[in-house]
Write a structure and sequence with these properties.
The chain has helices spanning 14-25, 35-48, 61-70, 86-97, 107-125, 133-150, 170-220, 248-257, 321-327, 374-382; strands at 294-297, 314-318, 346-350, 355-358, 406-407. The protein is mainly alpha-helical and 408 residues long. The protein folds into 2 domains: 14-153 and 165-194, no CATH class; 195-407, no CATH class. Strands 4-3-2-1-5 form a 5-stranded antiparallel β-sheet, covered by helices on one side. A hairpin with a 4-residue loop joins β3 and β4 (355-358). Residues 1-10, 50-59, 71-82, 127-131 and 157-164 have low confidence and may be disordered.
């Protein structure tokens, strides 16, 4: 079969690529595409709509929503075919604002978001990791041709010269399948990077809200940092949820308990176990270590540090990987980055309210490792040539007021 829009091979032609770009620029609305490309853009959108009724599960949120929007079914350019429903657009916008966390989407839009997740998941599962893209395309084309051959006796085919309106032919299906597979191979890494950037942006916004909470707390409590216990005195500070005197995170949680900050602002989107509703906590602390998204400054014995004692001192950061390793009995990498952002770095909140991004836990200005007390840092410097240690037991404290040590 052939028509005026067929190409050599299965890759999209130059007009198809121009139509796809125009469709993206028009916000996936074919009616807004330049008239020269509008018919082709509407045909592409209609063909990609084949995926709209698939029932599959969704995990990779950002890739799912990006592909669901890129391959929205719009139909031909006439007004009789429905375009993207405003409620669907509203649901997807709300999903982006919520950091692609469906549980944070308003209840009235949540069911639509679940449907878009299902649509997107089909694309994520279509190209398994490690699969050769070209061989996958070839097998897909063979499978399509085989299925067509079995039904050729029953299939009604229009004229090669003047095909009937609305009828999809085998070369149309082949082109769509190739576009999906090749698009997935190219776009999934980009979507992963976009997702990480989005999470990092939301996390930085969280710290901005938390900085205001610290400032309000200090104004009401003689410039003091939030404290929920009288000190650890050599006892444990990483037993999250087991008592105010056994968990440093209870000190940080006092901002939530006293209403200075919302629990969502202390839930990094890079921590999948972070709770967003107070009913998921103990009321005075998080219930377990894995729920804690940010590590808070430990208070030295007998000290009462204040927010503005050292404006550049770090008082909060993305959760410590060192504590997680030590609690799990794993070898500790003292200069590892926070798991909140795929080990790429961590946000630091300082006493002056500024939130900055650091690619290392070792502060450039002081060479202080925020995951360790100074006494252990000194021991590490004395042992050269070793990349791992096992120093943390959960009862260490900063050596002095200027020793930055965050936990848990």
């Amino acid at each position: 079969m052939s028509d005026t829009h067929s190409h050599d091979g299965v890759l999209p032609s130059e007009p198809d690529r121009l139509a796809i770009d125009a469709l993206v620029d028009a916000g996936w609305d074919p009616d807004r595409v330049d008239p020269v490309l509008r018919t082709r853009a509407a045909r592409i959108a209609q063909a990609l709509g084949l995926l709209s009724n698939s029932k599959v599960r969704s995990d990779n949120i950002l890739a799912d929503i990006a592909f669901a929007r890129a391959m929205r079914m719009n139909g031909h350019a006439d007004a009789s075919v429905p375009t993207l429903h405003p409620a669907d657009q509203e649901a997807m916008d709300a999903w982006v604002i919520a950091g692609y966390d469906t549980s944070r989407v308003p209840a009235s839009l949540r069911s639509r978001v679940f449907q878009h997740e299902k649509i997107g998941r089909l694309l994520i599962d279509s190209a398994p990791v490690g699969t050769n893209a070209s061989s996958l395309v070839e097998r897909t084309l063979l499978a399509l041709e085989g299925a067509e051959a079995q039904r050729v006796g029953r299939l009604r085919v229009g004229s090669d010269i003047a095909p009937r309106r609305g009828r999809l032919r085998i070369n149309d299906l082949v082109t769509v399948a190739a576009m999906l597979l090749i698009g997935a191979a190219v776009a999934i890494p980009v979507m992963s990077s976009t997702r990480a950037h989005m999470q990092q942006t939301i996390c930085q916004a969280n710290l901005g809200s938390t900085a205001l909470a610290f400032s309000s707390y200090a104004a009401d409590n003689r410039d003091a940092l939030p404290i929920a216990n009288a000190g650890f005195g050599g006892g444990s500070w990483w037993d999250v949820g087991k008592g105010r005197d056994r968990s440093n995170s209870a000190n940080l949680f006092s901002l939530v308990a006293a209403g200075y900050v919302d629990l969502r602002d202390l839930s990094c989107p890079g921590n999948p176990e972070a709770p967003t509703e107070t009913g998921q906590t103990s009321g005075f602390d998080w219930r377990r270590l894995e729920q804690v998204s940010y590590s808070y400054r430990l208070i030295p014995a007998g000290a009462a540090p204040r927010v503005h004692d050292d404006p550049r001192s770090v008082i909060l950061a993305d959760r410590s990987p060192v504590v997680l390793m030590a609690v799990r009995g794993q070898p500790v990498h003292p200069e590892a980055n926070s798991p909140n952002h795929d080990d790429r770095g961590q946000h630091l909140l300082r006493g002056d309210g500024s939130a900055t991004w650091a690619k290392s836990p070792v502060l450039a200005e002081t060479a202080d490792n925020i995951w360790l007390p100074r006494s252990i840092e000194d021991r590490i410097r004395a042992i050269r040539g070793r990349s791992t240690i096992e120093p943390i037991r959960g009862n260490e404290l900063p050596s002095h007021a200027l020793d930055v040590f965050l936990g848990p």
